[in-house]
UniProtKB/TrEMBL annotation:
One GO BP: autophagosome maturation
A Pfam family matched in the record: ATG8
Record protein name field: Autophagy-related protein
GO cellular component: autophagosome membrane
Lipid attachment site numbers (Phosphatidylserine amidated glycine): G106
Homology family: Belongs to the ATG8 family.
Source organism phylogeny: Eukaryota, Sar, Alveolata, Ciliophora, Intramacronucleata
Keywords from the named record: Autophagy, Lipoprotein, Membrane
Subcellular location, record wording: Membrane
Primary location group: membrane
C-alpha cells in the first residue's frame, strides 16, 4: 500500500492529466473468498459497470459471479461523482471502496 504522501502525489499527477478522474483505493473485504489485488490504487474514468467488468477480468472472476462494491457499510450505487464528493478521504482525496463476492450487509469497514 502506498503512504499518504505517495497517494497525494499520484492523485495530483493524475488529476492534472485529467480533472474528470476519480481516484479510488480498492480493498478486499476480509470475508470475501475472491483473491486480492496486487495494486489497490485505481483511477476511475468510466462508468461503474465498465469498471466492475474490468476488475472482474483482472481478478479472473466468472462473468456469472457477482462482484459488489461498498463504501462504509453501504452498497455502492452506479454513479460515483456525487458519492466521491461526499465520501472522499479528506487527507488524501481518494475514495476508499471495499469489494467482495458477497453483499455482506451490516459489516464494519474502515
Amino acid at each position: 500500500m502506498y503512504s499518504i504522501q505517495e497517494r497525494q502525489v499520484k492523485f495530483k499527477e493524475k488529476l492534472n492529466q485529467n480533472p474528470e478522474m476519480i481516484p479510488i483505493i480498492l480493498e478486499k473485504h476480509p470475508r470475501s473468498k475472491i483473491q486480492g489485488l496486487k495494486n489497490q490504487l485505481y483511477i476511475y474514468l468510466y462508468n461503474l459497470i465498465q469498471f466492475r467488468d474490468t476488475l472482474k477480468c483482472t481478478l479472473q472472476i466468472s462473468p456469472k459471479q457477482s462482484l459488489y462494491f461498498h463504501i462504509g457499510n453501504q452498497l455502492l450505487p452506479e454513479g460515483l461523482a456525487d458519492i466521491y464528493q461526499k465520501k472522499k478521504d479528506p487527507d488524501d482525496g481518494f475514495l476508499y471502496i471495499t469489494y467482495s463476492d458477497l453483499e455482506v450487509f451490516g459489516f464494519i469497514s474502515k
